[in-house]
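Private note to self, pasted from the team thread so I don't lose it. Backbone tokens:
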């Protein structure tokens, strides 16, 4: 038998780079005919040259280690392993790429691969189906898949988006407004997604150390300039660096999105969703890597009830995209919210010139 690396495909493909990205995926749950059930799993799949790697593995029911229901500390460990900042969990420098969606036990079977650095590049090679500590490439190797060579900077940037910031995020917001019922619903909605929310009329009696605990301040539209200025001066005296949010409309999901965006202090170059505009019956969305984007339009009807209409939900490639909007939904005063994994943007809609409503 020839030496293992006598035929070195890495050298032959030294300049053949594949692109690396992550995109949301699901393993749908369901009840089986025998009464058993499949667990629903949301996870991030690996996109190689824009194609989900899982789709290249025939008839495989599996999820990546980057699942949404994994505890945060374990999720971070998985990310650091893929970044090669931690030791490989299996002999021979092998890492689990996809595992059992029910129990993640290696005995159920897993797709593994060697992940290694080659200069500044990262290489995934020798894919195999593995059920114990060792992999038999001759018997269980995926001979038609890989090796994949990724540019190290692109590879690391995509995975590092998933790591918690080195500085503790101040996911707490102060809500200042006159509509108590709206503020109460907004605070409840924010708390359900892990954002602390407090309601106040002003900051007169709030100690400086407490002001410094906030990451954002949200003003209702009815709050005048004098009160806004007094609040901002109080935060400045306390040495608190906060983001200020001017509520666009008393629509709770819209306000939640505005606050989520304000609390996102990640560098622009590490974000997926970087631009959103809505005018002339279409939305302009710009993303930096392949990702799933959802667009929802919000407005208040004549009875001040919130109306929400999904405009788009699909996978977008890197770049700028123009997406048609239902003009019957976005006419008048309405707003568009774009969401992707780890990012959200908000924009008011502007009706086509021929149907534009007069200013109020």
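Design output:
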């Amino acid at each position: 038998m020839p030496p293992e690396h006598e035929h070195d495909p890495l050298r032959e493909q030294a300049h053949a780079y594949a692109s690396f990205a992550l995109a949301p995926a699901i393993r749908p749950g369901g009840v089986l005919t025998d009464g058993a059930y499949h667990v629903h799993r949301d996870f991030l799949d690996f996109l190689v040259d824009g194609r989900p790697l899982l789709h290249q593995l025939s008839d495989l029911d599996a999820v990546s280690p980057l699942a949404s229901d994994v505890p945060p500390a374990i999720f971070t460990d998985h990310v650091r392993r893929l970044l090669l900042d931690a030791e490989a969990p299996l002999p021979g420098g092998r890492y689990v790429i996809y595992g059992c969606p029910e129990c993640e036990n290696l005995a159920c079977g897993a797709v593994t691969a060697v992940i290694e650095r080659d200069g500044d590049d990262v290489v995934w090679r020798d894919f195999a189906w593995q059920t114990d500590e060792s992999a038999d490439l001759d018997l269980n190797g995926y001979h038609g898949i890989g090796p994949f060579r990724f540019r190290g900077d692109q590879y690391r940037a995509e995975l590092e988006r998933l790591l918690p910031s080195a500085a503790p995020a101040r996911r707490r917001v102060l809500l200042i407004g006159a509509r108590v019922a709206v503020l109460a619903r907004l605070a409840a909605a924010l708390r359900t997604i892990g954002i602390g929310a407090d309601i106040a009329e002003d900051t007169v009696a709030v100690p400086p150390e407490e002001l410094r605990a906030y990451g954002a301040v949200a003003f209702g539209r009815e709050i005048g300039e004098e009160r806004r200025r007094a609040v901002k001066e109080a935060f400045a005296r306390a040495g608190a660096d906060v983001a200020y949010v001017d509520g666009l409309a008393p629509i709770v999901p819209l306000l939640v999105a505005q606050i989520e965006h304000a609390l996102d202090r990640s560098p622009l170059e590490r974000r997926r969703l970087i631009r959103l505009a809505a005018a002339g019956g279409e939305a302009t969305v710009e993303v930096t890597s392949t990702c799933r984007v959802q667009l929802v339009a919000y407005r208040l009807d004549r009875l001040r009830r919130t109306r929400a209409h999904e405009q788009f939900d699909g996978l977008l490639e890197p770049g700028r995209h123009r997406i048609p909007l239902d003009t019957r939904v976005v006419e008048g005063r309405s707003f568009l919210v774009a969401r992707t994994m780890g990012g959200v943007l908000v924009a008011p809609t502007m009706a086509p010139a021929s149907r534009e409503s007069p200013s109020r």
